[in-house]
Design brief:
The structure holds two protein chains of two kinds. Helix content of chain A is 80%, strand content 0%. Chain A has four helices and no strands. In chain A, helix 1 packs across helix 4. Chain B is mainly alpha-helical. Chain B is built from seven helices and no strands. In chain B, helix 1 crosses helix 3 and helix 4 runs parallel beside helix 6. Classes of the chains: A mainly alpha, B mainly alpha.
């Protein structure tokens, strides 16, 4: 089950834009805040929040399909 | 008036990242908006799920990437410097030797023109023995190289009268 989820998530992550993918992984895996993600991605905090939010919405669609 | 739903602030709110003022605003909104309250819970759950599932995924580590980038830049710069430095070193030594030779020729010629005195004795044999004994493969031994060039210049200067005008001009250049 976890392997399947991982595989589906890999596919979903690949379809995200590079910044959305980076933003969601930085938060989900590294635990960075929106402000820290903004510093890494060289964007505003508001933009970083948008990247994370949109990425999570896309990933949720994939995870809901299981 | 249409209500503003703080959609992009929901995940930071769930993670506890908002400052006090913004946290109060979002909390007040969630108390009044069931849809956003449900959405906040769903988004938080999804983030937790993503974190659990992606734990084993190779993750681009930005600090490691930056460190690797700086390391490669430093290597590239060092390689450029290694290529550049020895050539500059040889050029400077060759130029210094040539300059010393030219100065020696000018001084000697001027001295001969003013006072036709014999050249100072140069123990050429001793110099030749030293040069023959030196390992000329190690061209970093600058004094040996410099002495070799000066020896050649002395030889030219001593036999300057025998040098044809055209060759003399070439020797001065």
């Amino acid at each position: 089950m976890i392997a399947q989820s991982l595989e589906r998530l890999r596919g979903a992550l690949g379809k995200l834009s590079p910044k959305q993918r980076a933003a969601v992984l930085l938060q989900a895996q590294e635990g960075l805040s929106s402000r820290e993600i903004a510093a890494v991605l060289n964007c505003s905090e508001a933009t970083a929040r948008v990247h994370v939010h949109r990425a999570v919405l896309e990933l949720r669609k994939v995870l809901k399909e299981e | 008036m249409r209500a503003t739903h703080p959609q992009t602030a929901l995940i930071p709110f769930v993670r506890g990242e908002l400052d006090e003022a913004e946290r109060e605003q979002v909390a007040q909104h969630l108390a009044e908006c069931a849809a956003c309250l449900d959405e906040a819970a769903a988004l938080g759950a999804t983030m937790t799920q993503v974190g659990n599932v992606t734990t084993s995924m190779p993750m681009p580590s930005w600090p490691a990437y930056q460190a690797e980038l700086w390391r490669k830049l430093a290597e590239h710069e060092a390689a450029g410097m290694r290529w550049w430095r020895p050539h500059f070193g040889w050029a400077s030594m060759a130029m210094a030797g040539a300059l010393a030779g030219v100065i020696a020729i000018v001084i000697v010629i001027a001295a001969r023109m003013n006072q036709p005195t014999p050249l100072p004795h140069v123990d050429q044999l001793a110099i030749e023995n030293e040069i023959n004994g030196a390992d000329l493969g190690l061209l970093r031994d600058y004094p040996v190289v410099a002495q070799l060039e000066l020896l050649e210049n002395y030889d030219v200067v001593e036999h300057l009268d025998e040098v044809a005008p055209a060759d003399r001009n070439a020797a001065h250049s």
